[in-house]
Amino acid sequence: MFEKFLTGKTAVVTGSNSGIGLGVAHRLAKAGADVVLNSFTDSDEDHALAEKMAGEHGVKVRYIKADMSSADECRALIEKAGACDILVNNAGIQHVTPIPEFPVEKWDAIIAINMSSAFHTTAAALPLMRKAGWGRIVNIASAHGLTASPFKSAYVAAKHGVVGLTKVTGLETAQEKITCNAICPGYVLTPLVEAQIPDTMKEYGMNREDVIKKVMLERQPSKEFATVEEIGDTTVFLCSDAAAQITGTTISVDGGWTAL
């Protein structure tokens, strides 16, 4: 459906050497975009990942190290990319603790990486998009950008902030060929989530199916994980001409979570 319509565009995807970010990057590359992968590491494996993706999809793929907790490195990522027609703000971390015991350093890191990084990359990318006369910003928020859960104060605050930033960015670019939207996934089956299943099975004394449906997906009415491919395809749709009038809003990919 979307084959190669993004040829000639450059997409920067933060936090993209695994999980949702990597899935989104693959879908954008499949649609023809050149891709900049990113994380805070700088290993041979990171650069090999870029080479493999380039070979798979026949596009240019680079890996650029940048720590999303640093405002300067966020902005430098866009500068080093050289072009940024599509910006996907995906980088994120999590910590779960009641508010009185929530470590200050964890709060600061989650706010910086999950929310402030999106501001800094957007601020650096918008001039490039305006010069090109076209742009797409997709913020990977969360169902927790629209609702809340206990013990996730920093994450919920950050994701609500990302949704707010999305609205402001959409308004500031409303009369240009630039859009900004947030995707709000529920639980997505990533390697990190997959690795948690065996321990959760032991903790609750349940089989795999019951742990997934009764524990992990308790709040997700579909009782099915979203996939990284579904998040990637939603991102690609938001980059298409069909989505030209979709801006400043959220799209939930959460199996009905926020319908409750």
UniProtKB/TrEMBL annotation:
Pfam families (UniProt xref): adh_short_C2
GO biological process: monocarboxylic acid metabolic process
Gene3D superfamilies: NAD(P)-binding Rossmann-like Domain
MF GO annotations: 3-hydroxybutyrate dehydrogenase activity
Name of the protein described by the UniProt record: 3-hydroxybutyrate dehydrogenase
Family: Belongs to the short-chain dehydrogenases/reductases (SDR) family.
Keyword Oxidoreductase attached: yes
InterPro entries: 3-OHbutyrate_DH, NAD(P)-bd_dom_sf, Sc_DH/Rdtase_CS, SDR, SDR_fam
Entry EC no(s): 1.1.1.30
Keywords tagged on the record: Oxidoreductase
Species whose genome carries this gene: Paracoccus alkanivorans
